[in-house]
Amino acid sequence: MALRLVADFDLGKDVLPWLRAQRAVSEASGAGSGGADVLENDYESLRVLNVERNGNIIYTYKDDKGNVVFGLYDCQTRQNELLYTFEKDLQVFSCSVNSERTLLAASLVQSTKEGKRNELQPGSKCLTLLVEIHPVNNVKVLKAVDSYIWVQFLYPHIESHPLPENHLLLISEEKYIEQFRIHVAQEDGNRVVIKNSGHLPRDRIAEDFVWAQWDMSEQRLYYIDLKKSRSILKCIQFYAHESYNLMFEVPLDISLSNSGFKLVNFGCDYQDRDKFSKHLTLCVFTNHTGSLCVCYSPKCASWEQITYSVFYIHKGHSKTFTTSLENVGSHVTKGITFLNLDYYVAVYLPGHFFHLLNVQHPDLICHNLFLTGNNEMIDMLPHCPLQSLSGSLVLDCCSGKLYRALLSQSSLLQLLQNTCLDCEKMAALHCALYCGQGAQLLEGQWRQRADLNTNRVLSDFLKIIQWISENVSACHSFDLIQEFIIASSYWSVYSETSNMDKLLPHSSVLTWNTEIPGITLVTEDIALPLMKVLSFKGYWEKLNSNLEYVKYAKPHFHYNNSVVRREWHNLISEEKTGKRRSAAYVRNILDNAVKVISNLEARNLGPRLTPLLQEEDSHQRLLMGLMVSELKDHFLRHLQGVEKKKIEQMVLDYISKLLYLICHIVETNWRKHNLHSWVLHFNSRGSAAEFAVFHIMTRILEATNSLFLPLPPGFHTLHTILGVQCLPLHNLLHCIDSGVLLLTETAVIRLMKDLDNTEKNEKLKFSIIVRLPPLIGQKICRLWDHPMSSNIISRNHVMRLLQNYKKQGCGCNVNIKDCLLMETAAKYRAAMYPGVLTLLCSWGCPYELRQANEM
């Protein structure tokens, strides 16, 4: 399945055996009563009540006397602890415990059994109590009303020293939220008591709201109030120093006036949850990058299609998705479930569809994954409602299991291999790369780890490379290699700063106009939040940065190689004309390239099969060095407050990762086809395996050329050698003339030395030599011991002499003797002489020189 649920807690495994053991000890000592059947009936009421910020889980059950028992499971020590027992037959509605486990707050309602009355507080439906439990001492009534009350202690820090004051939120069905400030003191050693319990100070936090959500991890309260029939979302941030702030207000284009009262994540669902749900689903998700998403699904009005909306507040727009249901006969009895997966939001309707929405890059629909119908990837998910807690925690209230929701890279890879739709291939590829965080697990420092999960992710990533190699032409809407290289390189530095999604491209695709089958999408601009504070830290600083980008940075800040392309062409042209600019400038560029290669070598500790990174290749090093300079300047312009040294390291990591991916694709194919170093000798025609590697290298070249990305030094040499072995001469020359094959000095030297002087090879060598740049051609000709080579050398020498003669005017200062000697040697050694006389005449050579040549 696309979503992998890893159980962090299970009532049946983590609590029930311990309770049975405790009961058995009690029975043996004679303190308890009842047989095994009674024991099992007692634990039928066992259920989870709340999950606190530190991960501790509060649960409850009723013993054989009907008493309400509260227990706590410590997620760190994985031990259970009994907190408190109410010796009354009541139903627990809401519960929370403070971080020191000294105070317990609980809301209880009258028992559902007929004839029972609430003996603690006659005349009230809901009783909210505050209990001293370290040790068990006083019980204080906070509320005794006819409306439901939810309770939640604030946790300023996950690990904090005991505070003299505890803060408790009370959320009332009567649409107000209060904060109680509870002062505690230690007496008689470790005994903790409430000071001034007769009057607890309290503040009114919010009122007249219709919906509220608690974020336990970040200690934030989101709520919506209605102003003139407008839904206004507000957020309150609680701090450790006993204060709180209203952070923002933002209007939402949704109607909640007839939706009743709804709470999210204030404890776990209970038996009367349908009274408050009415199939309305609304939740807020955030992540560490400063994203803020509001997911909304109205009450289902049709069994044929489902509509839901996602407000990407940090992007300034919303998207409304309408999906057709294939199983129309199967009525939708439950609402949509939204799950927070950090970089993605999962939208799940049991038995109907499973969608993965890209939160960070929602602009193109192809970056979202839509699975519908009876897809085996969604049938394995639970059909009961799942409650999304902070982060990636998911609670199944029916079974009492707490999961950590993760995307399954293996399932995504399976989808990548089996789907026929380009949009699903694109989405599955991005999801799979996100799961593996790019190619970082391939680096040498990770190879030494013996972690099974790491090995599994590594194996899946290698499968992605293998699948791309085998299906490089499978996608018509985008280039698979381009997408893989850009996305993986993006992930290599994404975690360094929160603004990388604005500065680096995460995809090679800029537009997508193809429709997604079964999905209708409407995109609308929305109002940005009105921030209510002046200074920001942490998440709020990142959110504010995202909002500022939406306001003022309409042009894309994404880096591209246009400047590098122009400068690189200028340097190559200067090299050909011999007018290259200052040596210091070129040296600095080449030094940048050396740093990239060193960074790459340091991360790649494994043996290399292919002869990449083993030659100079000055052109690729120039391109590498220019890209370092330009990308560094790009980061310095837009990353304010980041050290220059850190920026330089990010640039080196990004470019070395890009080169490493190219090397790894080539080596994966090399290894797959069992090629060895002897392949690089010209002793036979190319095999099918060699042609396959040549083909994938050609596709890599096409992908990088259009993006103007550097290639590993040695790539062109290896590509040319394989081309010579695999292609007929006319195809080979066509590839050279069209720029598909780039002749390097190393490749041509190997060609001249390894091939003998048969007629066929002479034709090949001559065809190669005449296509070489002059500087390389002169050097290569001297390595080929053949009359044709001597002829070429002679012609070049005569041309230089005549060029000098023409530049000097009418005065005949040409060394005619040298010219005659060279021409005589050429005539003697070459069976075919193209005729230097024509060349001499074309230069306007004097009669004496032409006559001497004809002798």
Describe it for me?
- By secondary structure, this protein is of the alpha+beta class.
- The protein has a domain at 796-855.
- Helices cover 38% and strands 25% of the residues.
- The chain is built from 25 helices and 32 strands.
- The strands form seven sheets. Strands 19-15-16-17-18-32 form a six-stranded mixed sheet, with no helix packed on it. Strands 10, 11, 12, 13 and 14 form a five-stranded antiparallel sheet that branches.
- Helix 12 runs antiparallel to helix 14, helix 13 (583-603) crosses helix 14 (618-638) and helix 15 (644-672) runs antiparallel to helix 16 (688-707).
- The termini are far apart.
The general outline is: elongated
> Helical residue percent?
25-40%
Structural class per helix/strand content? alpha+beta
Mean pLDDT, all residues:
81
* N-to-C CA distance: 86 Å
Radius of gyration: 37 Å
Instruction: Give me the count of strands.
Output: 32
Largest sheet: 6 strands, mixed
Tally of DSSP helical segments: 25
- Give, in spatial order, the strands making up the sheet with the most strands: 19-15-16-17-18-32
Which blocks of ≥5 consecutive residues have pLDDT under 50?
114-119, 438-452, 824-855
- Beta percentage is 15-25%
